[in-house]
Amino acid sequence: xxxxxxxxxxxxxxxxxxxxxxxxxxxxxxxxxxxxxxxxxxxxxxxxxxxxxxxxxxxxxxxxxxxxxxxxxxxxxxxxxxxxxxxxxxxxxxxxxxxxxxxxxxxxxxxxxxxxxxxxxxxxxxxxxxxxxxxxxxxxxxxxxxxxxxxxxxxxxxxxxxxxxxxxxxxxxxxxxxxxxxxxxxxxxxxxxxxxxxxxxxxxxxxxxxxxxxxxxxxxxxxxxxxxxxxxxxxxxxxxxxxxxxxxxxxxxxxxxxxxxxxxxxxxxxxxxxxxxxxxxxxxxxxxxxxxxxxxxxxxxxxxxxxxxxxxxxxxxxxxxxxxxxxxxxxxx
Amino acid sequence: xxxxxxxxxxxxxxxxxxxxxxxxxxxxxxxxxxxxxxxxxxxxxxxxxxxxxxxxxxxxxxxxxxxxxxxxxxxxxxxxxxxxxxxxxxxxxxxxxxxxxxxxxxxxxxxxxxxxxxxxxxxxxxxxxxxxxxxxxxxxxxxxxxxxx
Lengths: 333, 149
Known about the structure:
A: 333 residues; 6-stranded mixed β-sheet
């Protein structure tokens, strides 16, 4: 790639025009509540099914971001979106309503990173002017697809994470003082974790490899960034991530944050924190974008992480491959 | 960076473990309570129908417990009990009721036939299959032993 083995530099500085986040009631009870743009009182969002509710969440995030930028859907060239459901029905069904050209994305919980990279590259190359990069997840739809019915009386294992109910959208375009400076596209990494309830451990090697490669490609020290933010490694996955970096001689514990770890409180009984395609996008578009705009954060590396498993692959005993894409946000004063 | 095998070892060493004592105590207490409720219902039935056979009382008792499990599932309470009690609320017959009613509720959105009817036994199915298979096996042994008596 142009910026080293896996890194791209965006010379024309694709900018963040706006961001929007909408979350479910449990997320609104968490510590990031003041930063979210909208909170649901009930997680069915007044819809007949949870799938419909997630779709409405996704749509609300996209229209929220467009309105926040003072634009209309006709001003947006492309919606690049993804989610966790089979055949990414949430994103495509919400695009059905929006009347914006659509590219569907999937790399599990790292979809937000992938969408940002594709959006930034298309803008940087001059092919489009503006792109709405969106992702969503919903606890109740993910639970039934990957695990058990909601009312089944099972216990969460100590390494499991709680799928975030929420959607986030970042509108990229030509205006704003936050821009995407570069990005590192991750490789699919599998260190042989087979427990589908231990996704933090399955994704940590992918995140560590992407960060190591990014730092090598750019010749930067971790301290170049105010924060290195992983997507949804959770408390335990973050610990493994930092151990892996340490084994490569990189110390990043003081500047590392994890969206999954941040979104829930310990009291909320989510063993390792949050996860899901919506996790990194709601946390970035609320907390981090707020601090970037306020100038409290000048440079950050966002590394959404994804576990590329399906229910079928876990039943067939396959181990869980992970992926992580890194995106650099910088503030221009 | 660590190799695959080193990483698996690290994961085994660091991964958080279940709080065994706490979960065992909860499972014991809740499982025990469910059994006590079952026994109480059986005793009450016996008081009401002094001439009834043991077998009939046991059947009425099971039906009552299945109803309770299903009812609490329908109210959305059984999963909350399960979060704390684990196997304590899965193993009794109320847990079996929960495993049938919860998918039936969950997949209602996919229609009556392909949703409720098809998915009703996704969790309880294996238990029924192994129960039937085991009873055939035991039956065969019983029959075979009988031949030599």
